[in-house]
Amino acid sequence: MPKSKRNKQVTLSKTKKKGRDHKEGIVNSIKDASEKYSSVYVFSFENMRNQKLKEFREQLKSSSRFFLGSNKVMQVALGRSPSDEIRPGLYKLSKLLRGDAGMVFTNLDKGEVERLFNEFEEYDFARTGTIATEKVDLKEGPLEQFTHEMEPFLRKQGMPVRLNKGVVELVSDYVVCEEGKPLSPEAARILRLLGIKMATFRLHLICRWSPEEFELYIDGPDDSDVEGS
């Protein structure tokens, strides 16, 4: 039987932000999870919403464990090459931990994990810099959805408004945002006031590892290198 690599010492000298003890704790937790759970997935995310992710993690708490944070620390824990990986084939996952990504170790079967991730979708108000999914323009005239106290705030956001007999009125047509263009801070605030949600928090499976196989879900620039390594 091959010797377990789980207790192999690793260096964290290149990751220095949160303190050695904290990072070593994450590394050890990932090593423990690699033994406890039957499979592990790398996933990416867009428009992260921490509270929604917390709820999703809580839903899977009894069967799974999530890891998000420093990609470098997670890569060190998994191993970056066959020579330092903690289980055969896990180093391939470290090559795919890039950008907005995380891991989930789980005992759920493959079909259930795929269903849960594919169905996960949460709409929320967009933040500054988000690409607008539609054009929003307001026509000249009364804006009865706003109280008169809101008029100074709306004016500060660049909207051409005035009070007319206690009613907020737009004195000319106003484009809040254009489809396909990043939202300004002012546009993001106005869309929130209008109740228009343009951000969708999604999770995308990138790859799956189990002792029996390694599977890619999303093609990427280095996938041939990962498969061929």
UniProtKB/TrEMBL annotation:
Per its UniProt record, what Pfam families does this chain match?
Answer: Ribosomal_L10 (PF00466), RL10P_insert (PF17777)
Region feature (Disordered):
1-25
Q: Where in the cell is it found?
A: Cytoplasm; Nucleus, Nucleolus
- Signal peptide residues on this chain, from the entry's feature table: none
Stretches assigned to the Large ribosomal subunit protein uL10-like insertion domain: 126-196
| Extent of Basic residues compositional bias | 1-20
What InterPro entries does the entry give? Answer: Mrt4, Ribosomal_uL10, Ribosomal_uL10-like_insert, Ribosomal_uL10-like_insert_sf, Ribosomal_uL10-like_sf, Ribosome_Assembly_uL10
Alphabetically sorted, this entry's keywords are:
Cytoplasm, Nucleus, Ribosome biogenesis
Entry's Gene Ontology cellular component terms: cytoplasm; nucleolus; preribosome, large subunit precursor
> Could you state a single Gene Ontology molecular function term?
RNA binding
- The main location class comes to cytoplasm
Gene Ontology BP, a term = nuclear-transcribed mRNA catabolic process
Asked if the keyword Transmembrane belongs to this entry, the reply reads no
- At the top level, the lineage of the source is Eukaryota
PANTHER family, per database record = MRNA TURNOVER PROTEIN 4 HOMOLOG (PTHR45841:SF1), MRNA TURNOVER PROTEIN 4 MRTO4 (PTHR45841)
Described function: Component of the ribosome assembly machinery. Nuclear paralog of the ribosomal protein P0, it binds pre-60S subunits at an early stage of assembly in the nucleolus, and is replaced by P0 in cytoplasmic pre-60S subunits and mature 80S ribosomes.
The UniProt similarity line reads: Belongs to the universal ribosomal protein uL10 family.
Summarize subunit and interaction data from the UniProt record for this chain: Associates with the pre-60S ribosomal particle.
What protein does this entry describe? Ribosome assembly factor mrt4
| Provenance organism | Lupinus angustifolius (Narrow-leaved blue lupine)
Where is the organism placed in the taxonomic lineage, from the top?
Eukaryota, Viridiplantae, Streptophyta, Embryophyta, Tracheophyta
